[in-house]
Every structure is written in structure tokens, then in C-alpha cells.
Amino acid sequence: MSDQTPEPDPTTSTPESGGTSAAGTATADRPTPPEPGRWHSMLREITTGNALVAVLAVLLAVVVGSLMILFTDDRVRETIGYVTARPSDFFSAAWDAISGAYSALFRGSIYNTRAEDVTTGIRPLTETLKFAGPLIAAGLGVGLAFRAGLFNIGGRGQMLLAGAAAGWVAVEVDLPAGLHLVVALAAGLLAGALWAGIAGVLKARTGAHEVIVTIMLNYVGYYLVFYALSSQSILQAPGSVNPKSSPMADSAVLPRILGDRFNLHLGFVLALVAVAIVWWLLNRSALGFRFRAVGENPNAARAAGIDVGRTYTTVMLIAGALVGLAGANQVLGTVTSGVTVDLDAGIGFDAITVALLGRSRPLGILAAGLLFGALKAGGFAMNASQGIPVDIVLVVQSLIVLFLAAPPLVRAIFRLPAKEAQ
Amino acid sequence: MSEGTTTKITLPAAVAPETTAPVGYKAPIVFGVITLLLALVALLAPQEGDTTFRLASGTDFVEIPEISVPAGPSTWVLVALLVLATAYSLLLTTRRVRTPLWLTTLFAVVAITAFLCWAAAGGTLPVVGLLGGALALAVPLVFGALGGVLGERAGVVNIAIDGQLLFGAFAAAIVGSIAGSAWAGLAGAMVAGALVALLLGIFAISYYVDQVIVGVVLNVLVIGVTSFLFTQVLAPNSAELNSPPRFPRLAVPVLGDIPVIGPIFFRQTVLVYLMYVAVAVVAWALYRTKWGLRVRAVGEHPKAADTVGINVNRTRYRTVLLAGLIAGAGGATYTLVSVSQFNREMTGGAGYIALAAVIFGKWDPIRATLAALLFGFASNLQGVLSVLGSPVPSQFMLMLPYVVTIFAVAGLVGHSRAPAADGVPYRKG
Hints:
The complex is a heterodimer of chains A (422) and B (429).
Chain A: H1 22-29, H2 38-47, H3 49-71, H4 74-80, H5 87-109, H6 118-121, H7 123-147, H8 155-172, H9 179-206, H10 210-230, H11 266-284, H12 286-296, H13 298-303, H14 308-334, H15 347-357, H16 362-386, H17 391-405, H18 407-413
Chain B: H1 26-44, E1 50-54, E2 67-70, H2 71-94, H3 101-119, E3 124-126, H4 127-153, H5 161-179, H6 182-206, H7 211-234, H8 238-241, E4 249-251, H9 261-265, E5 267-269, H10 270-288, H11 290-300, H12 302-307, H13 312-338, H14 350-360, H15 365-388, H16 394-412
Parallel strand pairs in B: 1-3
Antiparallel strand pairs in B: 1-2, 4-5
């Protein structure tokens, strides 16, 4: 183990680093130069090894994903049987499988090269943005909690509760257009905030570990929403036997921002607004400073007079509202045909990978959300045209995060020199 | 948790909890709340008729008659007992004595009986079937929880139990189908569980990656890989790759004929008997052997362990791999016992319930097993009650283990303290 220099990194565990003094820990994790200007620090981020490692991590994950596609492809498996006799068959089959998969991914996520006109051509890009919206919002929720040292695994439950609340307002409450949407969104944000707030309050009051509480709240939330959707008196569509609500009222649906030809709706813009707000909150506000202080070292923060318990509660409330935005976005924008228990569509967990890939920075989360949104949109296209299951996206996503979390591993694989100690 | 300044708490992103809870008032408070809830339920939704508990199961030495009690009065008698238990717990607490485990267990049993009396009014409750089914449902939870306890005792948080169960189920289906033997399937499941554990080890032990993150991501990875391969490989070749033989139900000769107990505990599949052995061996080995002492030392104070010559990371690797073998065996339950077929995401998050059992059981193999059994009971009860047409919506029964766990981490089980170095990677030097 002598050749690996353990390096400080936000994604690697450093709960015990420093620990001798408050100042020690504050500087051990992240070297914080005295604000050398935004552009300068951004440039520095890119030029240090981290960016390279990130690119290589993505590359590695894609290679593994490609191998999985390759070895489950029927024709490849057929031709590998006589690869020594006619290797050209095998290589052309392999090329077809891989190039087919990735061109489908590109056509499904960026630009459809087979489209008649440009408007149809850029449709995939708008789909990518549509998928990215909730990923960004939920990723912000997870990332913000990370910055305060809390691990919010409860995205699924928060999204479900938020979706159910927003859906309830959209279906059952009668309000004028415009106001209806605002109230429905607010209900979603509030429900998400309260659901996550439970974990925050318990953490603050009793020290109950938020990882456990949020995991458990996922299931409690799932069954609560399931119950609401199966009860005629609460949310179930009248006369229906399925656990599903009525379609959303038109006045509460997020408007499509590029006209009716595209599915992209206002949710993506709201996610961008959320990025800006969280960026301001973390980098410019006193509250955000308290979040970060508690996240870096709660003992030091307490010594400095910060109410750590209240900070935990506050950060979970805000994080829950952000995840709630993703939930409301799903119900009011993406799938308006009615609330179901599947409304989170895996976003609650994807958000964790988004936050990790984005290193819990708002702009990083924006980029990671766009990347994963593209993977999602492209994954569906890959499934439709090449018959490759969408689950490959999950594999690639999780591998990216795993490799990213262990830079020494990536360096070892690519035989890069170990990073010098900072 | 103010024992000392060196106490590093639980999972990595965690920090020292800041509250110093006053000793023990939580137990009587929670007892009181549960008692009050039951009393309210019995008061607001009184049930008519008799509740019948059927204890016989056909092939006993002696036939036990069905026990029939009037639902309303019996519920109230049991609630009165609960009040007594709560009062006793309160009395103990005022004398600064911690509420003992036997009282908690008794309270749980009485509370459950009271609830059953109320919920199954006018119907017949097949007690043997209920408990036997609960045991069968709890098998993967117990194996998973044992794996979790072992890993965390050595200082490695294992959120990836669900991944180990799922990958175990997947491997059991494939290996079992190819080899045509359930035993081979079980072996495959164990190896698969260990494989996930190896990944966990590489990232968490060698590369110091946050263990919660690795666990969560590994779960997603396993879901992705198994679902992908299921659609691409298993589904088209279902006959050759996804139809493993099942373990038959085996009755233990004499023990299986004991009334009530026999059919519940000793007319099960081999996996259940293996579970008994695993629980006993793990509990014994962890507390009574040199190996167990080392594992616990590595989890509590790795530096001290290192100082006396224990190779911390090697011990952690071995323990995590062993835990993976055990959890993988739990996964085999899904494809080699009830349904002999693998399906996408078929564990349905059972690994997270196992994780809950680890915490509810205070990182102790026996208590974690009891917690897992309780959770298995809750999910089986849901099925039985929905057949009886009980007044409780099934979703609330299904919710129960999770709610109980939240109560538990918030303080029902008193000071539930994780091993001190749990989740903290060890850097030598």
C-alpha cells in the first residue's frame, strides 16, 4: 500500500482526517486559498489531476459497459465461436454491436442524424434536458445535505411524498390557472421538505443516524403514498381499482417551453433556478456558511457558536424541498397522466450518483445532471433501436461514481504517476 | 454518547451526536405510546365477536383444540398487562435501572397478541402457519443481518447487503440451473455474495472510499448488472439458465413432531436449518474465540489492534468476505425455495430491512436475528390479515418494520451504539 498516496478528496471518507484542531480539519480536506477569484479557481480545478481522473473514470465505466453490450450480443457470441477461423466476422459483429449502441445513444440524447429537418433533429436534446431537470433538482438536494455532512438517501420517499402532495393539489383543488400551478408546486416542495425534515429533526434531537432514518422513510413514504393511491377517499381516481390518481388538471401542468412539438417543460428552468439559488446559498449566504462549517467539522462549528442541531434540521428541510421539486416536476410536467408509486423513476437514487459525480457543487451537479439526463434519454433510444436494456445506464452510472471515488485506483489502472501530496 | 472525546461515531458522514440523552426514559415513553395507541385503536374501533387461535397443524402427537376468546375483553386484558409493563419499566427507570431485554420482549409479544386479538376478531388465526411463514420470510433477512453484523463489527459498514442478496439470488438461479442441483446453486450464491463483498472491501478498505457511498452504489450496480443480464441472457434462455431445482421441505425426525413448535421450526427447508447453525456459530465465534476478539478489536479500536500485531486491513477483508458468503446464502432463499426463478429486483429492498435489523439488534448477532424475525413476522402477518379481511390497510402493516426501526434509532433500544471504528477506514502509519 506504499505506492498509494491517500489524497484528500470530497468523495473519499475523511471523517477522521485532522481531528486535532479545528483549523487542522478545515484545511486538511480542501485547501481553501483566500478566494483568488472565481475564474482563477475554476481554471485551477481543471488543470489539477482531478479533471483528468474524472474523464478517465467515465471512460473506464463506458469501456466496462461496452464489454457487457459486446458479450451479450447474439451475433458476437455466435462469431466468437469460430474467431480463429474467421476473425473478420467477429470483429465486424463486435463493431456493429458497439457502434450501433453508441450511435443510438447519440441519436437518442443529442441530435437525431436521421431526422428530416433540424427541428426534429434537436428533439433528443430537449429530451435530455427534460430528463436532466429532476436529476439536477434532486441532485442538489442530496449534494446540499452532503455539504452539511449529512447523507440524504431518502430521495425516493421525498419525491413520492412531494409528487403525491403536488398531485393532490392538482387534482382535488380548484384554483385559477397560474395560481393552481404555483400552489401545487409549493405543496410538493413543502411535502418533500417535511419528509426530509423528520430525518433532520431526529438527527438533531436524538442523534439518530440520518442514513438509516432516510432509508426507512423511503419505505414508509412508499407505503403511505401507495395507501393514498388505493383509497378512493384520498387520491385514487374515482371508480378505478388501480393505485393511480386522476390526470392532472390542465391549470396545474407545467407549461411546455418550446411549444407542443417538444416535451421539454418549465421544470428544467426551475431546476436551473434551483442551481442558482443553491449556489448563492452555499457560497454567498451566512446560512450556507453555517452548512459548510458544520459539514467540515461539527465540533469546531459548535465551538464557534453555531447551533449544529438546528443547522441539521434546516439543511434537511431545504434539501427535502429541492428533492420535492424533482417529485413535483415528475407529476406536473413529465408524466401528467396521474400520480403512481413509480413516479420517482429511480431519480431518488440517481440523485446520489449525480451529487457524487458533481462533487456536491451546484455547477458540478448541473453538469452531472445533464450527463446522466443524456444517458437516460439515450438509454431509451438504445433500447428501442438496438434492444439493449436500459439497465446498462445504471451500470455505467454506478461505475462512474465508483471509479471517481477512488482516484488511486484509476491512476493505477492507467499507470499514471501517483498524485503528489498536496 | 459522551463517553469520551475519541468516540468516532457510526457511519462516515456522521459526526458525534450532540445530545447527551438522560438515561433511559425513552423505553417507558415508547412503551407508553404503543400502549396508548393500542388502547385508542381498541376504543375507537371496537371489534365484535371471537378471535380464534388455531394451534393444531394436523400431524401432531396430540391435537390441540382451537383457542377461542372474545375479542373485545381479551384485548383490554392484554392492554392492561401492557400498562403494567410500562409502569414497571418506568419504576425501573426512576431507579436508574435500564429496562431489561426480557421485559422488552415480553412487551412486544403481549402487544402483538393484543393487536392480533383485535385485528382478527371474528376470524380464525392459523398461528402455526403465521409463525412458520414468518420464519421462512425472515431467512434472507437473518442471513443478511448476520453478514451486516460481522462486517460492521470489523469496522466496515455494509449498505450493500441488498446487493449481496440480489446477486446471490441471481447466481443461485444460474448455477443451480446449469448444475441441476440446489446445493450448487447455494454455493454459487455464497460466492456471488462474497464477490460483492470483495468489491466493497477493495473500495472501502484499500481505497478509503466512503463506505456508505460504496454500499449504495454497489446496490445500484448489482441491480443494473442483474437486470441487464436477466433481460439479455436469462429471459431468452429461461429453461437452461433460469429454472433451478428447489430445496425440498425436510422434517427433522423427532423435533418435527413436537406440537406447535415442530411445524414452525423443524419442518422447513435446509436453508432454515443452516440459518440456525449460522446464527449459533457467528454468535459463539464473535464472543468466545480469539478470532472474534480480533474482529471486535479491529472494529472498536483499530490502532490498538494494530499495535498488538493484528493486521487490521487483512482482518477486515477476511471478515467482510465471510460476511459476504453468509449474506449470499440468504440470497439463495429467493430462487431456491419459494419461487425457482430469478426476476429483476426480486429482493425488493430486503437488504435494507436486514440493515435495519442490524441496527435494531444493536450490532449483536442474536438480537439482530430476533429483529429480523420480528420484521419477517410483520410482513407475513400482513398477508394473513389481508386474507382475514382485517380493518388495518395492508400498507400500514408493511410499513411497520420501517417505522419500528425509526423509533429504534431514535431511542427505543436505549443507547444503540455502533462499533467505535465502524465506517472509518484504517490508514496505517
